[in-house]
Each structure stands twice: as C-alpha cells, then as structure tokens.
Amino acid sequence: MRALVVTTGLAAAVDLAMIVSYAPTDRVQGVVQRIFYFHVPMAWVAYLAFGVVLVASVVYLWKRDTRWDAVARASVEIGVLFTTLVLITGSLWGKPIWNTWWTWDGRLTSTLVLWFIYVGYLMLRAYTPDPERAARLSAVLGIVGFVDIPIIHFSVQWWRTLHPEPVIVRSDPQAPPEMILTLLVSLVAMTLLFTTLLVYRTTLERTRDENRELEQRETAPAALDAAPASVQTAAAGQPHA
Amino acid sequence: MPEASDAFASIGYLVAAAAVTIVGLAGYAVFLAQRLRQARARNTLLHRNQR
After folding, report:
1. Whole-Å CA distances, A172 to A168, A176, A180
2. Which of A19, A54, A215, A219 has an alpha carbon within 20 to 30 A of A115's alpha carbon?
3. What does the pLDDT profile of chain B (51 residues) look like in tens digits?
4. Chain A interface residues (partner B, CB cutoff 8 A)
C-alpha cells in the first residue's frame, strides 16, 4: 500500500507541475481554462467510482459476500466526494465563462441528480438499522443509480446546453498535443488517487465489520449471564428442569 | 466571456478551484487516515479482550 501512496504522490506532483508550466494558456478563455485539468479527471473518477459501485453491488447481490458490499460502500463515499468537487469547480469555471454560477441545463442538472442519488445511498446506509437489509437495498440503488451516468455523458448531444461537447475524445481532437498530454497525466494521477483512497476506505470498512463481529461476540456471553436461568439452560442446549 | 478577459479575476477563479480541489482531497485523505487509525486501535483492543 505504501508503494501506491508514493506513486500517487509522485504522479500528483508531476501533474501539478505540468498544469502550471507545461500546458499552454488557452487563447480564448485565458488562464481559467486550466480548471479543465482537474475538473475533467475528477468527473472521470466519479464515473469510475460509481462504475465500481455497480460491479460490486451486482456481485454482492449474486454471491452475498460482504466484502463486495464493503467495496461498494467505500466507492460511493469517494464518488460523492469527487462529484461534489466536480460541481464546485464547474461552477467556478462557469462564472467567468458563462457569466453564471449555475444553469439548469442537461449536463449540470443530470450531474446534480447523480450527486443526490448517491447521497441518498449514504443516507440509506446510515438510517437502515438492519445491516443485511441496508446492504441489499443500497446494492439495488447502486445499480439503478448508474443509469444516470450515460445520461450525463450524452446530455451534451441530446439537449441544447451551455456545456461544451467533448474536445478530446473524438476522431479530430480540438486541442493541441501539450493540452492532451497534460490531461492524460491528470487522468492517470486522479485514477491513482482514487485507487489509493478506495484501498484504504475498503480496509476501513472491513476493519469496522470485524470490530462489529468482535463486539457482538464480546457482548453475547454478558447478555447470557444476565438472562434468566431457563434461558441459560436452553442456550446451553440443556433440557428444562 | 465577461470575466475571462480580466486576467486578475481569471487567476482568482483558477486559484479558488485549485484550492477547493486540494483542500477537499487532502482533507478527505487525512480524515480517512484518522478513521482507519481509530478502527485499527479498537480492533487491537477487542482482540486483546477476547484472548
């Protein structure tokens, strides 16, 4: 895990240096266009995080293995963090370019809906007392919620919107090679960061699950001591006197 | 592009976006490390109690 942290740190440092000194300044938008190098990779990571939730939820419903549920829980939290940052950085980019912090167009609205879906997932987990039921219900939400991602992706083609269409992922990229290279390095750095956070967050979930089991084992004999004698003999497998 | 032509305002928006990103990601990483440390400490304690 330490090697992953070091690699992520190095990639982030190289990426920051490239954003500041290597990537050219956009002729039309000026220096504010550099928001692109973290706004777009964070949106990609949010898609990836909810994709991981989709896969982990499907496997959990199929195998009923709590390790997959832990991966889904971990990935949702990270996905919500990245979606929040995408919405904030998008707003900070929109104000100087579109002259508005927010507009109810297809791309922005569907991204906000995505944020609400997965915040709902976290609330469902927090307020459903039975862990097995919480895991099952949230797995269904994790699968259904993913439907919003293709809607976000194609929203700029389906509806008239202020948000630009893709400039890189197309047959004739509309950006100079220095911009494309910087974006690729940013994508790698953000993906590494996501992987690191997911590994640590899943470890946290697994440790908490184990702690809950140990706590139950610890409180079970105490509860048995406090129970009436008839319950104790029944629990011990003895016939009633 | 009302404010993009103003270089000073443009830098301000870029710095704000970079700060939100760095503080958000670094803050989450620190918060995560803290929660993991607490969970591991509790885990060690519970294992010790059960021995």
Report:
1. 8, 11, 12
2. A19
3. 555 567 788 899 999 999 999 999 999 999 999 999 999 999 999 999 887
4. 28-32, 34-35, 38-39, 42, 81, 84-85, 88-89, 92-93, 95-97, 99, 193, 197, 200-201, 203-204, 207-208, 210-211, 214-215, 217-218
